[in-house]
Write a structure and sequence with these properties.
The chain is of the alpha/beta class. It is built from eleven helices and 14 strands.
Length: 337
């Protein structure tokens, strides 16, 4: 059983980890000091359950439990000094509750009770019969087969997208929609730069009414939304270029593109959210996940700005968090399977 411990007390985290790891088949895959880090770690590590305190800085355990148990479908065991907080924990979506004992009262009986609760609430069994976290790619909520790839980015995006596109290899089998926050008038030059820099894949400025073909990247024009008008019988999307109002002051908006793709392709939608400032793309990622599709967001370690990927993680819209250098290979693997 893979567990994450979230508590702002390093002493409590150490006590829990030392005792739980004595139990066969229990692994502590992350030990963190607040709810936000618990969510981040849960996306990366895909635990079977999270043990969380309530009172923590930056993001408390109740807010984290709402995201973990609601959007990410990961069970949470709340551990709190305040026994009267059980109702609040349940309201936040926690699967179970335990009262935190004093430091000298963490006895074997306490951990036996904890394991009973964890065994009862821990994640599902994948079809293979192997126990796995609820967000595991081995379960993948039956996503795919994928029919479209959508990419969103902002600050630092062109360099990041170029690296991903180059890694897709020749004859990529899906049409690719790409929304980049860009200044008016700069879109065509950027498309020309991409097209000349990518020897393996063609990059074009998206045009209204055009059938999007496999192996071609269609970039949203500056100050216009890129969406899907409809899907043809052959599975190819027909492009819609929209002058609809900006979303969160942004046009084109990644959220709008992601939401459109989720609406038409459901579990066959694959999306990647790369470096960028702000929160655009986060809700769109969640819509794709809710529709059964798959999302990959860029890890903080390679982002120029971690704003958009971090927001997607917080919203429960990240199925996987990967450093940039691993994203293209993961896309190819998902599409091949």
């Amino acid at each position: 059983m893979k567990l994450i411990i979230a508590d702002d007390s390093a002493v409590i985290r150490a006590i829990l980890a030392q005792n739980l790891t004595k139990i066969p088949d229990v692994e502590i895959i992350a030990s963190v000091s607040n709810g936000r880090r618990a969510i981040d770690s849960a996306v990366r590590e895909r635990p079977d359950a999270v043990i969380s305190d309530i009172d923590m800085p930056e993001m408390d355990g109740l807010k984290a439990a709402k995201i973990l148990s609601g959007d990410m479908k990961i069970p949470v065991l709340i551990l709190s000094e305040n026994s009267s907080a059980m109702a609040d924990a349940r309201s936040a979506g926690a699967s179970d509750f335990m009262t935190k004992p004093s430091l000298d009262s963490y006895k074997d009986g306490f951990f036996s009770e904890m394991m009973e609760k964890l065994t009862r609430i821990a994640g599902p069994i994948c079809p293979s019969g192997k126990k796995s976290g609820r967000n595991s790619s081995s379960c993948a909520q039956d996503s795919g087969p994928f029919r479209i790839l959508c990419i969103g980015a902002s600050t630092g995006g062109p360099t990041a997208v170029l690296e991903v596109l180059r890694g897709l290899g020749n004859n990529f089998p899906l049409p690719v929609f790409y929304t980049q926050h860009i200044e008016i008038g700069a879109d065509r030059n950027m498309v020309n730069w991409f097209d000349s820099s990518c020897q393996n894949i063609s990059v074009r400025l998206a045009e209204d009414g055009v059938e999007a073909l496999p192996g071609i990247v269609y970039m949203a024009p500056a100050d216009r939304h890129l969406e899907i008008a409809f899907v043809k019988n052959n599975g190819h999307p027909v492009i819609k270029i929209s002058d609809a109002p900006p979303e969160r002051f942004l046009r084109p908006a990644v959220n709008r593109m992601f939401r459109s793709a989720a609406n038409f392709y459901k579990k066959s939608c694959l999306a990647v959210l790369l470096t960028g400032m702000g929160r655009d793309g986060a809700l769109g990622c969640r819509d794709i996940c809710d529709s059964g599709g798959w999302t990959i967001v860029e890890d903080k370690s390679t982002c120029a700005v971690f704003g958009m990927p971090a927001a997607a993680i917080e919203e429960g819209g990240a199925r996987e968090v990967l450093p940039r250098g691993r994203i293209a290979a993961r896309i190819v693997s998902l599409v091949s399977n």
